[in-house]
Design goal:
The chain has about 325 residues and is an alpha/beta fold. Helix content is about 35%, strand content about 15%. The strands form 2 sheets. Strands 3, 4, 5, 6, 7, 8 and 9 form a 7-stranded mixed beta sheet that branches. A hairpin with a 4-residue loop joins strand 5 and strand 6.
Length: about 325
């Protein structure tokens, strides 16, 4: 367990020693403890050409940083940071974003500006709906509700608008012991009441005779379940939303090398991550698992400076 995590941690410690992050030598604090793989200044964790802009973007849109530090985490294995490092640089580049989504499924003729940001682009981060359809006590970008790591809105050849929510994983892995069941205890009762009717009425999620203790309430599937419901509800209520669409494609970014997540045999299914989730959904075309380097492959020649950074830090 966590083989990939430790490999990536060791690689980043070498990068710190090689001055990949400039003068930042690590030994920053994470949860009040110092670690060699945590940068002292969180901004150094971001690709140099996006640092100031990303910080301003989070401030302008009242978004919450992972770790609750009030700024970018210095933890070099943060998946939020990894998502931003891959996607933020191209958020204003229509051609790059269109090439990227067509690399996943070649059916789109355009990507559209997303109106939920103060300064709109073609990719938005930590996205929530304008209205709370999941009974989560109000949307807050990045905290205390279902939010989308990154979102693209695309137009297909027939003129149909698509939501493309992206869930980004890096070194995460999950146990599925009974103690990890999110449907038990007082909070579990709230979650069951909150989601089971939506699951039962979902077109994509398969209904079950009972929901307590099922795949839907274990990570990473708990997140995928909520994001699926989120996409369905935003589409259903599009007249009330700034983000308007008629269809969706859910992209799950997981490094191919992260066998701790991709290849884990989950207790409730006896199968790996992807097949476990596919067993729970109806339309298989709406769910795509992709490695980050494969996702970015169509834009490598468009933004070679970003590609060089990502390859050295994440892909090699």
């Amino acid at each position: 367990m966590k083989r990939y995590y430790y490999e990536e941690r060791s690689k980043h410690e070498r990068l710190i020693a090689e001055k990949f992050f400039g003068a930042d030598g690590g030994n920053g604090t994470f949860k009040r403890k110092a670690y060699p793989f945590v940068l002292k200044y969180g901004e150094n964790n971001l690709f140099g050409q996006i640092r100031d802009d990303v910080v301003r973007y989070f401030e302008d849109n009242k978004m919450v940083w992972w770790g609750g530090t009030g700024g970018p985490s210095g933890h070099v294995l943060s998946s939020q940071i990894a998502c931003l490092n891959h996607l933020y640089y191209i958020r204003g580049n229509r051609d790059a974003v269109l090439a990227m989504v067509n690399g996943v499924r070649n059916i789109f003729k355009d990507v559209l500006p997303i109106g939920c940001d103060k300064e709109s682009g073609y990719i938005s981060f930590e996205v929530v709906s304008d209205n709370d359809y999941l009974g989560e006590d109000g949307p807050e970008r990045g905290a205390n509700c279902t939010s989308i790591d990154a979102l693209i809105v695309a137009l297909d050849e027939s003129g149909r608008r698509w939501l493309i929510p992206i869930e980004w994983k890096y070194t995460e892995s999950y146990t599925d012991n009974p103690s990890d069941d999110k449907s038990v205890g007082k909070k579990g009762e709230v979650r069951l009441e909150r989601y089971f009717k939506l699951i039962r009425n979902s077109e994509q999620l398969k209904p079950l005779e009972r929901y307590r203790g099922t795949v839907y309430f274990y990570e990473p599937f708990y997140q995928l379940m909520r994001q699926t419901l989120w996409a369905e509800q935003v589409i259903k209520h599009k007249e009330r939303e700034r983000i308007m669409a008629e269809d969706y494609m859910h992209i799950h970014v997981v490094p191919q090398g992260n066998g701790d997540l991709r290849e884990k045999k989950f207790r409730l299914s006896g199968e790996g991550m992807e097949q476990t989730w596919r067993n729970m959904i109806n339309d298989q075309s709406k769910y795509v698992v992709v490695d980050p380097s494969e996702l970015m492959k169509p834009v490598n020649m468009i933004v070679p400076e970003l590609t060089e950074y990502l390859r050295k830090r994440y892909w090699d």
